[in-house]
Design a protein that fits this description.
The protein is of the alpha+beta class. Helices cover 11% and strands 21% of the residues. The radius of gyration is 17 Å and the shape is globular.
Length: 107
């Protein structure tokens, strides 16, 4: 367990049932993989409700807020996880599309 500094963070999790280095559970924090565990078979649908920000029985509550939640099928690549984190942490640094132009212009 680790304490994360104050402020917004991008947290992503992924599970792939494949055997070997491509499979397993991964936890990403601000575009960096901070934990990885070997796969233990295919993912199973939950039998009950899904909790966000706490463990199933209400313990381990998050001290903070969840700004957005997205569920996807499949895992993001390392580059995609980094891009999502960068976009959340510094949206002004990303390219913007000018109205009436088909060219991206960086800030």
């Amino acid at each position: 367990h680790a304490v994360i500094d104050a402020g917004w963070h991008h947290v992503a999790g992924c599970y792939s049932p494949e055997e070997g280095p491509a499979g397993g559970a991964e936890l990403w924090l601000d575009g960096v993989c901070v934990a990885r565990q070997v796969a233990r078979g295919p993912a199973k649908a939950p039998l009950g409700e899904i909790s966000v920000g706490q463990l199933q029985e209400g313990s381990g509550r998050l001290s903070g807020q969840v700004g957005q939640l997205r569920l996807r099928s499949g895992c993001m690549s390392a580059a995609r996880a980094q891009m999502a984190a960068d976009n959340l942490l510094d949206p002004e640094a990303f390219l913007q599309l000018r109205m009436g132009s088909s060219r991206n212009v960086g800030k």
